[in-house]
Model the fold of this input.
Amino acid sequence: MNLCAILLLLAFTTPSWGKDIEAFPDLNLNNPNELKEATRVLEEELQLAARTQTYLLIDLGGSTIHIKGRGIDLHQIPIITWSSGSREGLKGIHRLIARPPVVRRKIEPGAGVEQEPISLTDMPVDYVLLFNPSLRVTVVPSVASDSLLQSVVLLGKAGWRNVKDWTTRLITDRSSEPKSHLRLTLSADHAQSLAWSLVDGMALVIRRPTDK
Amino acid sequence: MGRLLLATSAVVLLLLLVVSTPTPSRVPPENPQPAYQTAVQDKGGLRTLQARYKVLSKQLSQLMPNQPYILVDTARNRLYVKHQEQVVLNAIASTGSGTILDKPGEGNSQWVFDTPRGEFLVKSKLTNPTWIKPDWAFIEEGLAVPQNAADRAEQGVLGEYALGFGKGYFIHGTLYTRLLGKNVTHGCIRLNDNDLRGVYKLARVGTPIMIF
Done:
């Protein structure tokens, strides 16, 4: 009887670590290039997951942005399309220099009126994220929208940003620009959701796709 | 003449858009060798990579909490209690409003009413908590900050329970249940009475809280 009680106790008092989980379920274990990339990302992720912080994992092969903490997937954001410059610069742990700016409403003391909070809809849909070491991530909304007007506005914004980038590149020293660039197209809602979830100094690792 | 100018501008803008937008096609792999060439050449190397991947996956899974943990989505104002992949409790919450309030007499210093993001631990479990009103609560109402500590105590506004997770932040109840699901708090996480009771029962001191 006592032995049964001890066995039951042992069964319920499992150690404080979790069960084994496949880090990348889509991984082809017979493809050495995929394995090399996955192990590189895992080595970097382990450093981040050991700390009390949330971090980003952009899985370009799986077209998903993962917001993670302790290795747990807290939230996933699908990527519609992406493009990049040199993929070598996407390796390593990058830190977000600053999250996208948000217009915060100021409370008027004693106003006695319910103050309007910020919400997801206050977040930008297209923005540029600068990381350290040098990496520039451009988030643009998908123009596959039901509203023609919205599509025109989004296209106009993207065009204006490109004009600005182009002129900036013409008049400034190009060597000071980030060498690595990643462009992500997300739905407008998901772009806002990502902007909301970012924190200054947030770490980022990127899993690059390999040839199949 | 005006129409011609407008049309020319539109064409120039479109051309700039097309020229300066990175091509959506993905960059070809940097390593042009056939995918499985390495594997064919070196099966031992593949096995080593597979073993390394398994070890790293296991190490990552060991960092995940095996005990129940609290997950808070501040964008959608939801609180979950999860045990591994299973959702044990799913509640509508209210989290930080993101508004700001000037600190009187402190120049440009401000309070920012965000719910902090990252990983925290339940540090205290209180029953019938008393709210010790901080300075901002008086300033927001246009009142003078009391000198006497006893004048800061307020009973019954935090519900039956409160779970502290550091720096004055709590998961607690609310009188304003109609505001659940909205970003209205000064950084704390509000729940209705039933959900608060459930979280209080499931969590213990040391339970992880993941907030994103």
Summary: Confidence is low (pLDDT under 50) at residues 16-36 of chain B.
